[in-house]
Design a protein that fits this description.
By secondary structure, this protein is an all-alpha fold. The chain contains 3 helices and no strands.
Length: 59
């Protein structure tokens, strides 16, 4: 069974990432799989931010 508390803490750290931090992670990834993983996280965070902006009628 997975450690739910551990993964919850990881999630809480990941959602704090800034765009420049995800870019740095992508650029310093050890391999293509890791690079793709960080790109997916960056895209997810960007989509969340876009959704918030739209909901607040700022766009």
């Amino acid at each position: 069974m997975c450690d739910l508390i551990r993964y919850s803490e990881i999630y809480k750290e990941i959602i704090k990432l800034q765009p420049e931090e995800t870019l740095q992670l992508v650029m310093n990834a050890e391999n293509e799989d890791e690079q793709e993983f960080y790109q997916l996280i960056g895209n997810y965070l960007l989509q969340k931010k876009q959704k918030q902006v739209i909901e607040m009628n700022l766009f």
